[in-house]
Amino acid sequence: MTAAGRPQNHGLSIGAVLAQLRGDFPDVTISKIRFLEAEGLVTPGRTPSGYRQFAAADVERLRFVLAAQRDHYLPLKVIKEQLDAVDSGAEPTAALPRPPRRLVPIDAPAENVGLPVADDFAVGKELRLTQEELLEQAGIDAAALAELQQYGLVRSGPAGFFDPDAVLVARTVKAMTEFGIEPRHLRAFRAAADREVGLLEQIVTPVYRHRDPEAKSRADEVVREVAALSVTLHTLLVKAGIRGVTGC
User: Fold this and answer.
1) For 199-214, how does the pLDDT look when each residue is reduced to its tens digit (9 = 90+)?
2) CATH for 14-88, among 3.40.50.2300, 1.10.10.60, 3.40.190.10, 1.10.1660.10?
């Protein structure tokens, strides 16, 4: 046990939490879970290497938050107030079921909350989606997909199949269109991502060329670590820019 009371190296990864929640909340994504973490609604622990570890109590809090949003249309601020009240021993509003208490202390470094870690970039079992499956899961039509492909935001493989990340990209772009942002406005995101991938290739290609049997594993680890750092840097730069726009 750690000093905080959480067993070391025991807990659920963010992917495992997503799998548990998807049955009741089909639209939930890893990005959504990260966002709720960033907003302080759930605070998973971290391993010494920075990997997220969600306890059962964390999963129940996520269920409460998602249900309160879906069934009661409550803003996150109100939901957080409910959770904070119960954590402090107060009684919740009668209109809502009693939210779960935080059973584990906050032990995640504040500077890491909501930001990706290397395991988020680990390659899992390869899944291939047809265009019809992509359209159904993303909630878009063929015309919208064609536009995403036109601007390079979604790409199919050589055989015409899509990977699961294409679904998340399509959903994210769809959500952004509600704010008047169209796919054509997002070409800069695609270009920036391609430049970051190109930089990663320059770093790891020499390692992949080594004859050492462990070279590929080391290169894969470097890719995951640098990818996580690059996304973290991008996130922090955008946050800093937003503060400059809003004057906060």
Assistant:
1) 888 887 887 777 776 7
2) 1.10.1660.10
